[in-house]
Amino acid sequence: MDKVRKFESDVQLIKYEVLKEVAKLAMDGTLDEEKDTIPFIIDPGPGPRIRCCIYKEREITKERVKLAMGGNTKRKNIIEVIEVACDECPVDRFFVTEACRGCLAHRCSEACPRGAITHIGGRAYIDQSKCIECGRCKEACPYNAIADIMRPCRRACNAGAITFNNETKKAMIDDEKCIQCGACITQCPFGAIMDKSYIVDIIELLKEAKTNDDLHVYAVVAPAIASQFTYANIEQVVCGIKKLGFYDVVEAALGADMVGLHEAKEFAETIDDKGLVTTSCCPAFVAYIKKNYPELEGKISNTVSPMIAMGRFIKHIDPKAKVIFIGPCVAKKREMMEPDLIGDIEYVMTFEELAAMLDAAEIDLENCNDGYLNNASYFGRIFARSGGVTEAVKHVVEDEEIEVDFRPVVCNGIKDCDKALKMAKVNRLDGNFIEGMACVGGCVAGPASLHHGSKDKNEVDKYGKLALEEDVKSSLRIFEVQHIDLDRK
């Protein structure tokens, strides 16, 4: 509940408050009639909480409510800019500060490839109309007198999808470049970038399931959840999710076990022809390859992600099933809508949205009876952090005694991924298997996590060690996974 919920910033707190109010009204069945009251609940006035005036705050909250209710359905991108919330950060990236000593060397202007720097009255000046933001002047200045003030959202976007409206100076997202990683969401200090939510659709589905015996709504929980609700154990979290109306709660890590086994075998069967295989678990990484290195698209593993694997598995064993994935990833919301994966997962809900739903329903996890969640192996659970997929595939290769030259390259974040892909493009990569994670740290550091701490990786490893099954084969022995199609359609 509110008394134990902790937030990393006011941005996250306000987003939570909006999601909670939307969820509460949706549960009561009064959302359409009362949604306009939410800005007055979040921003009661008379003075503003953070912004210049209460009226702007309420207008921003109104836009947040729209996104919490699904956002612009005509736009496929999951991430949207709330224009009224954008602070119009300075667009000119480099500028000369008061630290400029007007030195004789003029190294800054000598380093500039476009002649954008002039010297007037003993000081350097940058002509922004000529500046290409290469940063060479900053590197050359012996006094560190040139400041780099790149917008936080743009700095966070390693896909280069953030641009600016020349007239309004507001941030814009280039949908053609965006990989849905969500880094901009967490880095914008004003909360002006937010992901669309399907929380209302999920609530309506759960309501329907209460009166329809032919509808079973399953929750598939990502292993990163082990680091999220620090005041309750994982069994209490499972119990709380069931109280929301879910028919059952299962581990996405079981799907990771399936994927680890399938990907190892796929690697052994295709490596001679492909020469290189990249993982396919992170949808943002897959999108980055397709958008920036299309010549390497054929190297992407054809194995589906653990989320999709679990959706197909549950629907195989229960024809009445509808599946909701719960995790820290925004890109998963886009993955579920890909043409060859439609129907495997109904909706994706983030940890932020789960917290809001639990509190809207007044479910206190600390007072929940223990639930049960022990379907997967250690290796399936550590998929949540960087290096986990590699460890799982390596384990299968060794355990199954697969004779193959397995030389992995673990990429922690899009910058690492880009370096490896550049080398692979020119056939200079020292490896033949790329594990790509868009978020630094892996899924556990996803943009929709409740917190992003250095201890989260350790919590995932601890969670992995609690697994009853030590290896992938033991985890899958009681399931008919051989009947599940784990290839992309």
What gap, in angstroms, lies between the N and C termini?
42 Å
The largest sheet, given as strand count, sense and whether it forms a barrel, is:
4 strands, parallel
Mean pLDDT metric: 92
Number of domains: 3
Which outline best applies? globular
Tell me the number of helical segments per DSSP (H or I, 4 or more residues long): 20
Poorly predicted runs are: none
- Record field, number of beta strands: 15
Would you write up a description of this structure?
The protein has 489 residues and is α/β, with parallel strands linked by helices. The chain contains 20 helices and 15 strands. The chain starts with 9 loop residues before the first helix and ends in a 13-residue tail after the last helix. The model has no long low-confidence stretch (mean pLDDT 92).
Show the helix and strand layout.
Blueprint: H1 10-28, H2 31-34, H3 38-42, H4 54-68, E1 79-81, E2 94-96, H5 107-111, E3 117-120, E4 123-126, H6 136-140, E5 146-148, H7 152-156, E6 162-164, E7 171-173, H8 183-187, E8 193-195, H9 199-211, E9 216-221, H10 234-243, E10 248-251, H11 252-274, E11 277-278, H12 283-292, H13 306-317, E12 321-327, H14 331-335, E13 347-350, H15 351-360, H16 378-381, H17 388-399, E14 408-412, H18 414-425, E15 433-437, H19 456-465, H20 472-476
Helix pairs in contact: 1-4, 1-9, 1-15, 11-13, 11-17
